[in-house]
Amino acid sequence: MCEKENDDSPCAADRRSFLNRLSLGLAGLIGAAMSLPPIAYVLSPLVGKPPRKWRDVGGLEDFSIGETRLVQFQDATSTAWAGDTAMTGAWLRRIGEEQFIAFSVNCRHLGCPVRWVNDAKLFMCPCHGGVYYEDGAVAAGPPPEALARYPVRVVDGKVEVETSPIPLTTNDLA
Amino acid sequence: MKLIKSILGWLDDRSGFSDVVMPMLRHVVPDNARWWYVFGSATLCAFAVQVISGIALATTYVPGGEAAYESLLYITNEAPLGNLLRGMHYYGATAMVVLAIIHMTQVFLHAAYKYPRELNWMSGVVLLFVVLGMSFTGQLLRWDANGVWSVTVAAEMAGRAPVVGPAIAHAILGGETVGGSTLTRFFAIHVFVLPGLIFAGIGLHLWLVLRHGISEMPNVDEPVDPATYKEDYEARLQKTGVPFWPIAAWRDTVFSIAVMGLIVGCALFFGPPALGTSPDPSDINANPMPDWYFWWYFAILSMLPPQLETFVILGLPVVGLLGLIVVPMFSNKGDRAPSRRPWAVGTVVFGFTALVVLTIYGYRKPWSPDFGVKPLPASVVDSSDPAVVHGAELVHQKGCMYCHEIDGYGGHRGPGLSDIGKRLTQPELIIRINNGGYNMPSFAASLNADELADMVAFLNTRGGAVLKKDASSSDSGVRK
Fold this sequence. Notes:
The complex is a heterodimer.
Chain A: H1 10-43, E1 54-59, E2 68-74, E3 87-94, E4 100-104, E5 115-117, E6 122-124, E7 131-132, E8 138-140, E9 149-150, E10 152-155, E11 158-162
Antiparallel strand pairs in A: 1-11, 2-3, 3-4, 4-9, 5-6, 6-7, 7-8, 10-11
Chain B: H1 2-15, H2 17-25, E1 28-29, H3 39-58, H4 67-77, H5 82-109, H6 118-141, H7 145-159, H8 165-173, H9 180-212, H10 229-240, E2 242-243, H11 244-269, H12 295-303, H13 306-325, H14 327-330, H15 342-364, H16 378-381, H17 386-397, H18 400-403, H19 420-423, H20 426-435, H21 449-460
Antiparallel strand pairs in B: 1-2
């Protein structure tokens, strides 16, 4: 112990310096202890990817060859309270006896919902006017990528689409 | 009465209200700080409306999945005063954005950001961006189809960031798709994180106002000289200053009550924004549209060449924030009077003109296909030729009119076709329809030869052109 705590002696200065660093260090630890678990909690969706699931969207007999139809199904979310927000859609086209193509409904420009215009054989986006051909290739407008496709399979006469993440148009793909 | 006085005196003594708060309220301000200076306090008033109406709405709003939409329907249609409260919250947000921008423009035009008030300006810029963040997240809490798709668009925009883009996008969505964890995130940000930042920002902003004083009206004879400014300012205050409360503050209260009346009046007469369809991400009939504050940005995104898009999407907010923050670093002394700062006046005039033009453009969104276009009436087709009549039906059926306007019918994404018969010959029309063109898809796969011939026959009647029947059509698949 120093003789006086508030003088300019080396002992008092050293002690103040030590206590200064100790308090700041402990305050940092307290801050980390209270912040890190909540931050990790908020970011946890980045780590735990939900498993992909195959969703039944109808029987083979429900789809005519050449027809493009909107199918709606539940995504892979596991939150019980999601309700309608867990739904997702795909434009499904039957191209053969058991062959299908499922296009994402998300425009590759900014993710808006594209619509199938059957008479024109085009997918069109209402947001910024992106247009895609029948095969999903970009026909006009700002989309930098063709429409994404979802895996489809036929099991026991049932058509199933695999749930997928919202297709992001990232720099890596551009 | 004596007892009440005694209690109030005790509270005053123990809390230090008269010793600490009253001197703040009565601090001396320039006497010429009149109606120009009411916008900051009115912004604060609008924020108070948001806090109070927001707390009331949060007692009923359920921030989760489809229950959010149901609770919004209840608030809007059934809860006593719910419709009024939603309206107040919406028009309060509008008032806050508008007043913050006006306040900032006044500060910029009067160069009140110069020495020693640089940090006042910087904290105000940050506050403006947080307020815009509140507006965006608030729009999403109106959890209908538009809200769902706006989240998707936000995630897509964030996803463009290099390397960390997908992680940010999934953090925004609360997973890989829109779902139960999406809305709750935005709710937490809207009611806890951003308001906390605003409270802290307002605290800092007001403290800086007290520390450096309210700036005077600009005077061409009093340029800012950091070496002498504080002494000169104090000397002028000694001569002509007045206590803020109540000599200057009465104008703030009068203007704020007018703003309050406008907010409540709009809520009563216009009501809150209508709810769209339910928040079902598989509903593809939504037409996502931001609230009006972002229409200008919506318009910019539609006009960008693809190679610039990512840079603008990610860079514009950052450049805008940093560009405004550094203003005082480039000019913190010298003239304050707008008459001596033509570049500043020009910047404001150009900025507002661009904002208004882009906002109108964003509202009209001529780049968006018009999916609701009606078939052309017989009066417009104006022909009894079966081929022409069929051609007119085809330009509607095949979606041409989603993007092209004919005599007042149709979208505006592509050029109008009202006089296309004058501008393009029959072979040129055939080539254009078959091959497509700039921003126009090819229709070769969706039109047979007869349909193409009828469509061209109709288009040739637009503008009074004469059908060029002998044009070669064998290469283009048109029937003879």
